[in-house]
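fyi for ur records
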Amino acid sequence: QVQLVESGGGLVQPGGSLRLSCAASGFTFGSYAMSWYRQAPGKERDFVAWISNTGPTTNYADSVKGRFTISRDNAKNTVYLQMNSLKPDDTAVYYCGAFVGSIYWGQGTQVTVSS
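which gave:
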């Protein structure tokens, strides 16, 4: 079955950086695009970034363009989200997602940006 496991979240000061990872299993990872979403307390889950199955094509939410970078390693079945210049508004639970017939989510990893 499809499994997505996020890691790498934590507490960071404004202006800091974090790299999130999402390890995938249960499907042919290199055949599917992958996404990152985030959900702040009391808000809906919002799109953050998307990467095509082979990686050359990416797309970002306007709020993270120029600060976040999505990448993938198909040999390791892993997708990453490098987050730089973090702001308090980036505080949320971050989820990776894959549409493999239906949408699958990981359990999420908490990112807190605070001084």
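The first strand starts at residue 3 and ends at 7. thats all i got for now
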